[in-house]
Amino acid sequence: MKVSKLMLLFKKSDYFLFTMVLTISLSKALAFNSLPDVQNLILNKSSKQELSVIIIGVDSVCKGTACVPYVITKTVSNSNCVNCLQLQPNKTFSKEATISSYIPDENRSSSILDIGGVTQTNSGIPNITRTLLDFDLTNITQGTEIKRAELHLYGHPNTTIGVNMPPNELEIYRITSSWDQNTVTWSTQPTFDSNVKVTLSSSTEDYANYIVDITSLVQNYLNDKSNSFGFILKLVDETPYRRLIFASSKSNNPSMYPKLIIYKK
Q: Which of 45, 131, 135, 175 has its C-alpha lying 20 to 30 A from 94's C-alpha?
């Protein structure tokens, strides 16, 4: 008999969550063979609205890989997050892409391990890389006032691009037109609101973690949800050679996925 704990996250009020831990005994006949099997089992066990599930140590789902947490639905939340909403989607449910001026018609979302901003040259030709990033805020009502919003970005020691290269100040803007992570390119990149931005200071460290106050950007997002489609990250100075990069949701360490925390006012 195998026992696994499932942490269920339910809607409490507005967009804030509380947790309930459910312990389920599993026989071989009830073994988790796929993520839909897990989801259906939980839906049958609970009459409440399920927002997300964290599976702790279910090997038949994780197939021997690390799965603490392993996300079934769109959102990872944290029971230690009081009066706040924490979003840290994994590679299955994240929406992110990098776009490159050197390959302006190529989509680069499928396996990117790094996000951020890069300027370099390829065969003597300038190459600018930007990042598009969005979080699912559908559970937050239009016009909701927030106290604070933090974007957590983590330096990536296993980067495929290279270490940070200063001066590398980075800007974040709110995206104002739709984009599809599976098709977006430099040539088709979305528009953004240039009137409001948040700037990350330059880093001389090879790998740097940032907690960025993006309250103004998220508040504008919530005030105009029909015209808000995430955020664009770009270097302030896009002339070579500069680099400020972070782990993407496709990196091998779930704790380093980009994370957004929104605090209730």
A: 45
